[in-house]
């Protein structure tokens, strides 16, 4: 299997956080599109607090990747959704701890989420 190619091209500012500006997926690699994962446990209960929800959402993402014989090394693109007023520095700390180097491409949006108890959601593309 050909490796993913992470890119931070010359002529634009370096990434402002832990992400790559682009990730090229070589021809022939299978793509996995992962729906938004929130901080709910396998029994359906919601983790308490922003940091706990981030950790659980990443655990859920790891479980989906693992079910398809993949890991965070296969991540191409992540979209993060944070509820207004959440601690961005806590998000950055957990993200740094959980992602490989080089990191995937990503976008972070602060927005109201579908349920008032949800503080964080992450969706992903892997190859």
CATH architecture group name: 2-Layer Sandwich
Strand proportion:
25-35%
Q: Say which CATH homologous superfamily is assigned.
A: RutC-like
CATH level 1 name:
Alpha Beta
- The 3D shape can be described as globular
What average pLDDT do the residues reach? 96
**SSE class:** alpha+beta
And the CATH topology?
Answer: 60s Ribosomal Protein L30, Chain: A
- The tally of structural domains comes to 1
* Helix percentage: 10-25%
Number of strands: 6
The first-to-last residue Cα distance is 10 Å
Q: Return the string of H and E elements.
A: EEEHEHEE
Spans of 5+ residues with little confidence (pLDDT < 50)? none
Number of helices: 2
Describe this structure in words.
The structure is a single chain. The chain has 127 residues and is an alpha+beta fold. The protein contains two helices and six strands; from the N terminus they run βββαβαββ. The chain has one domain: RutC-like (60s Ribosomal Protein L30, Chain: A, 2-Layer Sandwich). It is 23% helix and 27% strand. The strands form two sheets. It has a four-stranded mixed beta sheet, with helices on one face. Strands 1-2 form a two-stranded antiparallel sheet. It is globular, with a radius of gyration of 15 Å.
């Amino acid at each position: 299997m050909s490796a993913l190619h992470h890119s931070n091209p010359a002529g634009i500012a370096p990434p402002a956080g832990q992400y790559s500006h682009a990730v090229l997926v070589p021809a022939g690699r299978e793509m996995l599109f992962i729906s938004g994962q929130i901080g709910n446990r396998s029994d359906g209960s919601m983790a308490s607090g922003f940091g706990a929800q981030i950790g659980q959402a990443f655990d859920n993402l790891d479980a989906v990747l693992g079910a398809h014989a993949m890991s965070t090394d296969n991540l191409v693109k992540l979209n993060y959704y944070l509820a207004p007023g959440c601690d961005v520095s806590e998000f950055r700390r957990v993200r740094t701890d959980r992602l490989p180097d080089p990191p995937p491409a990503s976008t972070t949006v602060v927005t109201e989420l579908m349920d008032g108890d949800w503080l964080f959601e992450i969706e992903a593309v892997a190859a």
